[in-house]
Amino acid sequence: MPFKRGNGPLVSILLPTRGRPQWLRESIDSLYSLAQDKSCMEFILKVDDDDKETIETARQLSEILPLKFIISSKGAGYFDMHHWVNDMSKLATGDWLFLFNDDAVMQTERWDDLLLNFDIMTKSDPSQSAYQNPGVCLFIAESIGRKDAYEFIFLRRKVFEILGHFTLSPHSDSYAIGVMATIKSAFKIPIQIRHFSELAEDATRIESKAAYITTGPTLTTSPIIRAIINDALKLQDYIDSMKGEE
Asked: Which pLDDT score, from 0 to 100, does residue 113 have?
């Protein structure tokens, strides 16, 4: 059976952005224009308070789209990414939290319909009967031309509600996948996204690449590994408690 549909948007698109107003517009347009149901989504942006052009772009977009935005300090840049993702998640009302980039564009037509119709993704793979509790799940979209890059994820908002956070690492995608894979609730979804970060040699990209050198290795440190395990156990406890009510 398909996932239970909530009363709000199908998906909340979480999109931190800096210094790329035109690319931001193109990213949002790709998601909106390729969706079957234009009312299925809401956009939630994080914009730095010194990025005046992007703030103005966000304000303009909020007049024509269901879009909210957080304006706050740049802080430590990429090192603070997890705080921003968690803050955006607090504003989300969608069934799914979709972490997106301002240097990426959606490529799959009717991607929202694919996300909504659970049977499309499970009928060919009996092992996905693991969805006994559809409130706890993560989907991984495909990055075109980047076979081993798991960058774009759809996380059920129920997971955020249970844990109180989306991520505890600046590498939000890797952290969330680590948690959900531990309880065998992370699955690939046939939604394709083109990520052109290699073309984005601007200040934002240069700063992010420099931060990766420091933040990347933290994913294999004891504190992060313990955090992933603790989050996975908390979700498993929830799943077990739900089974007990059946």
From this structure: 92
Q: Which residues contact 177 (CB under 8 A, 6 or more apart)?
A: 138, 140, 150, 153, 186
The CA angle 230-231-233, to the nearest 5 degrees, is 65
Query: What are the structural domains, with CATH classification, of the chain?
Result: 11-244 (3.90.550.10)
Does the pTM surpass 0.90? The reply is yes
For the four alpha carbons of 31, 153, 63 and 75, in that order, the dihedral sign comes to negative
Could you list the beta-strand ranges (E) of 59-185. Answer: 67-72, 96-99, 104-106, 138-143, 153-156
Question: What value does the mean pLDDT take over residues 191-198?
Answer: 87
Query: Cα–Cα distance between 233 and 246 in angstroms, integer?
Result: 20
Pick the residue with more confidence: 127 or 138? 138
Who contacts 94 (Cβ-Cβ below 8 Å, separation ≥6)?
A: 6, 8, 9, 10, 11, 12, 41, 42, 157
Q: 168 to each of 95, 117, 119, 231, 242, how far by Cα in Å?
A: 21, 30, 32, 10, 25
Which of 88, 79, 9 shows the shortest CA–CA distance to 45? 88
Strand, coil or helix: what is 172? helix
Residue type, 77: G
Which range, of 37-46, 66-75, 105-114, 201-210, averages the lowest pLDDT?
Answer: 201-210
> Per DSSP, which regions of the chain are E strands?
11-17, 41-48, 67-72, 96-99, 104-106, 138-143, 153-156, 186-195
Q: Are 154 and 96 in contact (CB under 8 A)?
A: yes
Query: Given this model, what pLDDT does residue 148 score?
Result: 80
